Amino acid sequence: ATDLRVAAIRLLGSADGLREDDFQLMRRLLAPRAPLDIQRAVVETLAGRTEDLAAEVLLAGWRSHSPEIRGRVLDALASRKSWVGMILQALEVGAIRANELNASGRQQMLKIGGNSAALGKALAVTASTERADVLRRFKSALTLSGDVERGATIFRKRCISCHKFKDEGHDVGPQLASITSKSKEALWTSILDPNAAVDAKYFNYAVITEGGRVFTGKMQSETGSSITLLAAEGKQTTILRRDIEELQASDTSVMPEGLEKELTPQDLADLIRFIQQSFR
């Protein structure tokens, strides 16, 4: 049945008299309740259109798109210059934030959009005023020598609920072994300002079910009939698509801000040293 629906979706928008109705149907189908294959087919079909209405449909449900669908939507939008202009409008009114777009996507948009000053400004990822102040206060951590043992103690106390080290902890946040090649400065920024640039896989999602229950976490996986959220301490929740009343992605990472509240610059230097040394 899904295969037949996918085949039918690929024909939507081709008949002049039904085009507007077809676009509205695709907008309804590009929703978290719909099977994943249906959503993929809708994005693929819209990507093949040239009308600005297609881009409007792709952008309309931005907050409810899963990481995979977001990636497909951005690839489609970044393929046409006029659609990049629509992303610019969305950025300017706050419907999308620059930190929700990965670096390669931003570069593609700048290339397609002609490197305009307005687009460059809108795509710039900057720290909030509060985070900028935190970065200034902890800048000395970059020049301090870190101690691995002290850093291990801090890691087990502050980070173990979302990151794994050997047989301890949980794989909620990024695999730390994948970021040890980052410079000390990059790790310092990631810890103090985790929302400056976030991989789509690590945005925090909230699901409200028809029964009124609320679940939050990163989108760990999705199938045709369900999604699974992963929260701190490895807590998993699987929700059937038919039970989803609302799904909303935040523009913040599953890693919370404020880790520095119980750290000194020396503590941070120790933690960074531990991460660089222990996950290679």
Nutshell version of this structure?
With 280 residues, the protein is an alpha+beta fold. 44% of the residues lie in helices and 15% in strands.
Which terms summarize this structure?
12 helices; 280 residues; alpha+beta; globular; two-stranded antiparallel ribbon; 5-stranded antiparallel β-sheet
> Helix-strand pattern, N to C?
HHHHHHHHHHEEHEEEEEH
If you average the pLDDT, what whole number results? 87
Instruction: Indicate the structural class.
Output: alpha+beta
Round the Cα radius of gyration to an integer and report it: 21 Å
Q: What general form does the structure show?
A: globular
Q: Report how far the terminal alpha carbons are from each other.
A: 48 Å
- Main-sheet strand order equals 6-5-4-3-7
Helix content: 40-55%
Low-confidence parts lasting 5 or more residues at pLDDT below 50? none
Question: Per DSSP, what share of the residues sits in E-state strands of 2 or more residues?
Answer: 15-25%
Q: Write down how many β-strands occur, each being a DSSP E stretch of 2 or more residues.
A: 7
Alpha plus pi helix count: 12
Give me the oligomer status. Answer: single chain
The biggest sheet, with number of strands, parallel, antiparallel or mixed sense and barrel status, is:
5 strands, antiparallel
Describe the structure.
Helix 1 (2-9) runs parallel beside helix 3 and helix 3 runs parallel beside helix 5 (67-77). The radius of gyration is 21 Å and the shape is globular. A hairpin with a 2-residue loop joins strand 1 (164-165) and strand 2. By secondary structure, it is of the alpha+beta class. 30% of the residues are buried. The longest helix has 14 residues, at 265-278. The chain is 44% helix and 15% strand.
